[in-house]
Design brief:
Elements (H helix, E strand, L loop, with lengths): L2 H36 L4 H5 L3 H20 L2 H6 L5 H9 L5 H31 L15 H23 L8 H15 L1 H4 L5 H11 L5 H23 L23 H10 L2
Helix pairs in contact: 1-3, 1-6, 3-8, 5-6, 5-11, 6-10, 7-8, 7-11, 10-11
Length: 273
């Protein structure tokens, strides 16, 4: 193995494990709430016959999960990407080194799959029921084209929000809250179109036990395309000098392994009246 790669692993492995754990916990939460809300034998499902109400509760649950991960000590240190599309976008923006991006993406895939497999061992029959189907993401009844377009759009707006808030001295600390709110809103309103993924590793994790391969390409391409388009738009409007770091939340004492210039943003904020 190349010496440089060994050095990266030696110094940054904690962040890789944090990314794996972050998406693993997200998938555990998704699977547990998926069973609770969609398994026909679950009391909550029987008490809430309307799909919209169940999606609303699922959205609140997963939005809260995302917020908890982002503001956890691990999320503050790793940056809480827990999404290959976000990592690759920040790599394109020059904020994360290539090998760090490779290990982040690998960790995210491994962590997400591990999380769903753990719940499969615990709640196998309920999680595999067709109504739950390992909380897999699949295009809705309007078809693949609509699902693909919807994934591009929601991913574009998520990354746009991340870039405009993380690079703002005042709004930076609230990025995680806004991200959780978008996740909750998307699950409630957009999920019937695409299943609401925005995350290749999240969709892959569910596809493995569900054996759903035919539509997986949608979730590998559309979220990344949408986020890269958001990055290009931001660069044209604000410029590369207005991208300071790759963390969701930087107002903390945790170390940063990225190509970070957040100190400049913080200093600018302190210098302003």
């Amino acid at each position: 193995m190349d010496k440089a790669v060994v050095e990266v692993l030696k110094h940054h492995w904690p962040e890789y494990l944090m990314e794996a754990a972050g998406l693993g916990l997200f998938m555990i939460s998704a699977a547990l709430f998926g069973v609770l809300l969609e398994y026909p034998g679950a009391a909550v499902h029987q008490a809430l016959p309307h799909p919209f109400l169940r999606r609303l509760l699922m959205g609140l649950a997963m939005g809260s999960t995302a917020i908890s991960i982002i503001y956890s000590p691990w999320g503050k240190q790793s940056g809480a990407h827990i999404n290959p599309s976000i990592t690759l976008t920040f790599c394109r923006l020059g904020k994360i080194a290539v090998w760090d991006a490779v290990f982040y993406v690998t960790a995210q895939f491994v962590g997400g799959l591990t999380g769903i497999l753990l719940v499969t061992m615990l709640l196998g029959m309920a999680l595999s029921h067709p109504a739950v189907n390992y909380v897999a993401t699949v295009p809705g009844p309007r078809g693949v084209a609509v699902g693909f377009a919807a994934e591009v759009v929601i991913s574009f707006f998520l990354m746009t929000m991340v870039l405009w808030t993380t690079n703002n001295r005042y709004w930076n600390r609230y990025t995680g809250l806004f991200a959780g709110m978008l996740v909750a809103t998307y699950i409630t309103l957009e999920a019937p179109l695409s299943g609401m993924s925005m995350n290749p590793a999240r969709s892959f994790a569910s596809a493995v036990p569900a054996q759903l391969w035919s539509m997986l390409w949608v979730y590998f391409t559309a979220p990344t395309l949408g986020m890269l388009l958001a990055a290009e738009t931001y660069l044209r409007v604000k410029g590369a000098h207005q991208v300071y770091c790759a963390k969701y939340h930087h107002e903390n004492s945790k170390r940063c392994i990225f190509r970070c210039r957040y100190g400049e943003l913080a200093a600018a904020g302190e210098a302003s009246p």
